[in-house]
Write a structure and sequence with these properties.
Layout lengths: L11 H4 L3 H11 L4 H8 L3 H9 L6 H8 L22 E3 L5 H12 L3 E3 L9 H11 L2 H6 L6 H10 L6 E6 L5 H12 L6 E7 L2 H14 L6 E6 L9 H4 L9 E6 L10 H11 L5 E8 L7 H7 L1 H5 L3 H14 L3 E11 L8 E11 L4 E12 L1 H8 L4 E9 L5 E8 L1
């Protein structure tokens, strides 16, 4: 595992500090406009402009695209002679042991019942693939991803910038598309530079998919992308998440939990306190949460307001959640689901919907597993709850009124 510091990872800025001026000179000598070079290389005109003005440094993919335009005469950079000139872009956290966690998952599913840790869902490769298919569906894109108020969040992040670089730590990153969209807005629309994106997930499938998407989408924008295989319940063991070297002490951090990840936290107080210990004053936190449709404790009102309590879970989620059981629980023949309401939770104003898998076994017995918990919050009460834990509220951005969600932008006090 790499130790934290200033990432160099073979970035061209280390090898060609005057790349922008050199590119302008070569393009002019070749009698190409920026638009013509963009078309010939397959890059965007904005990327060419940012390269020439020095706002972006070329990634290996960008450099390869420019090398294809032979009239430019751009040669491949020499390979660094010393290992210290570059660092890896994919890290494993010290306690990351996929085999052990997978065995724990199988052990739970072959017990008499109990609580199935949601992060185990993504250790099962087929379940991770099912999740990726759901998040890539037109319905998900139309009802959730396209409606996220990311532009407003990007504006607020840019306004809060310290001007010393921004490290975005995407926790439980999933497919990474929303986090990548946010980075794109920060660079393209807010004109921020010197960004790094750290993408953390427990699933090897998710780490791979999110990294590939971000690296391809952000190529040419000067954003350094890192993949991190690890557990967001164990942030203190991951140096790049918990430690600041002298060289990076002035860089601001933005932690993100998007896609409902925060709604499954078992103990919010403990987790947000731990995150605060890893953060520095001025760091930012972006939370994506379900908004409570009724007052916590009002059982009748919650049942009347929550569609899943009336109609049951969506079939796509049933297939996703039942997959690991049918694959790993010996003797499992059929899985059905019911949703139970926990009308009060630790966070004032919140309640919880628990997805219970009822497993019919070959010997005629029945087992029950809590597979998923989905918490809903009164956003103002959640913000008040987080303040004594070290997080002050900057903005609540509501979206999807028919299925209410909210982005909360917090700042470390």
């Amino acid at each position: 595992m790499s130790t934290p510091g200033t990432p160099k990872h073979g970035h061209v800025s280390t090898l060609h500090p005057n790349f922008g001026a050199s590119l302008t000179k070569k393009r002019t000598a070749a009698k190409l406009s920026q638009l013509q070079l963009a078309r010939a290389s397959g890059l965007s005109p904005r990327t060419i402009k940012r390269l020439e003005t020095g706002h972006s440094q070329p990634t290996p993919g960008t450099l390869a695209a420019l090398q294809k335009v032979r009239v430019l005469g751009i040669n491949a950079p020499s390979v660094p002679k010393h290992a210290g000139e570059f660092a890896p872009q994919c890290w494993l956290s010290p306690n990351y042991d996929v085999l052990s966690m997978s065995r724990d998952m199988v052990e739970v599913l072959n017990s008499s019942g109990g609580v199935f840790e949601q992060t185990h869902l993504y250790l099962d490769g087929a379940a991770a693939d099912d999740y990726l298919k759901m998040s890539a569906s037109h319905r998900y894109k139309q009802s959730f991803r396209d409606r996220l108020p990311l532009r407003r969040i990007a504006e607020l992040v840019a306004q809060s910038s310290t001007g010393h670089g921004l490290d975005v730590h995407a926790l439980g990153v999933g497919d990474g598309q929303t986090e990548t969209n946010l980075i794109h807005l920060l660079v393209d629309n807010m004109d921020m530079s010197d960004l790094r994106l750290y993408m953390l997930d427990i699933s090897p499938v998710m780490v791979n998919e999110s990294y590939r998407h971000a690296a391809d989408r952000l190529d040419g924008l000067g954003v350094v992308v890192f993949a991190l295989a690890g557990d967001f319940y164990d942030l203190r063991s991951i140096p790049v998440m918990s430690y600041r070297s002298a060289a990076s002490s002035s860089r601001q951090r933005l932690y993100t939990m998007i896609g409902g990840t925060a709604s499954n936290l078992a103990d919010e107080a403990a987790w947000f306190r731990e995150l605060a210990a890893c953060a520095a004053p001025g760091d930012l936190l972006l939370l994506d949460v379900r908004v409570a449709r009724a007052a916590a404790g009002d059982v009748a009102a919650i049942h009347a307001a929550e569609p899943s309590l009336q109609h049951g879970p969506p079939s796509s989620h049933e297939a996703w959640l039942s997959g690991p059981i049918l694959r790993h629980c010996r003797g499992a023949q059929k899985v059905t689901f019911r949703i139970e309401l926990v009308a009060y939770n630790k966070v004032p104003g919140s309640y919880e919907l628990d997805w219970i898998a009822v497993v019919q076994m070959a010997d005629g017995t029945t087992r029950e597993y809590l597979m998923l918990r989905g918490k809903s919050y009164d956003t103002k009460q959640l913000a008040e709850f987080l303040r004594p834990l070290g997080w002050g509220l900057k903005e609540i951005a509501l979206y999807c009124p028919e299925s209410p969600q909210a982005l909360l932008l917090m700042q470390r006090l």
